[in-house]
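Email to the structure team, subject: Prolyl oligopeptidase family serine peptidase model.

Hi all, the expression group asked for a predicted structure before they design truncation constructs. Nothing fancy, just the tokens so they can compare against earlier work. One-line instruction: predict Prolyl oligopeptidase family serine peptidase, return tokens.
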Amino acid sequence: MQLLMAAVLAASTLVTPQLSGPFAVGTFDAHLTDSTRADPWQPTKNRELMVTISYPARRTGQQAPWLGTTLATALDPIISSPAYLDIPTGTVDWAGTRRQARDARPLPGRWPVVLFSPGLQSPREFYAGAADDLASRGYVVVTVSHTHETVAVEFPGNRIEWGLMQDAGQATMKKAIDTRVADMRFVLSELPKLHNGADTSRVGIAGHSYGGYTAAETMANDRRFDAGINIDGAMEHTGDDGPYAPGKAVIEGLDRPFLLFGGDLGERELSHVDTSLTRTWADFWPNQRGWKRDVHLDDGAHLGFSDMQWSVPQIGAVPTERRESLIGTIDSAAALKAQHDYVAAFFDLHLKHRGTRLFERARHEGIRLVP
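Reply from the structure team: attached below.
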């Protein structure tokens, strides 16, 4: 009976959420090499990156896989482990899950650009839902895997490059943020070669966790980025061995629009009025010279800002306590709608100059505007 049940579970796949924008979405992956930069994690090699581009497209083509087969096989023991989902390996057919985005020709037009940086050691694939949804609202969205920091990156030819971070000390965390900023700046420079419709005169950047720190620091170092979002991320590279080391954006602020979008950790919250998780948001707030807002998702947990928000509720084997610690207790569909609407509204306001009232009064379940 146990063997039969394992076989049934292994055949199960997940259903990705429907897109909320008016456009169908196309997608492709690109392999980039920065011939001017040695890889900080492997100095004998040039820096290589994998990125995924999502864009408004014609309604044709096959749905793209959420995870490639090789990467899915490599990540399954990690995703399923007690440190994450705490389910038996093989419970989910990760490679069988399909995105809403397709292998499709782009729609004509010039579309504003948003670059996205994932959490520390996290694959870019874990943010495909958010990227595809924003693309469906009329954006070229580029998600980036930060090679040799990300737990695993799949390159052409089924080559896997594993993460090489050995510790979370301050020197390592500083190397990680500096590398990420250089990665994002390089990707923006390469984008016109990848998508003719990418309007690089209108550029946003967003990121989750350490990716939120990456968004702020990239803006502090490159004026091509017009607006940014930090999604639930401390803006420091203090690491495990201190002392307090906030980023340049925290110390100096930014003169362009920046949104803080936080969640909860138990009874504590990440906001500029609560310093129990990090003091960086509180330190950033008075120094920020451009447009700013602090939006909070009550009862939403840290990894609920990734594709775990829609995938975990579909996996019945995940223990209830583990599920709540990963994605919170807020209704999953409500959390997704709030995240998608607020991210799109921010970039619509600052890249498309479309008005919105979402930052004047909370209109979604779980959303609170922090004064």
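The first strand starts at residue 24 and ends at 39. The domain at 2-369 is CATH 3.40.50.1820 (Rossmann fold). Ping us if the truncation boundaries need rechecking.
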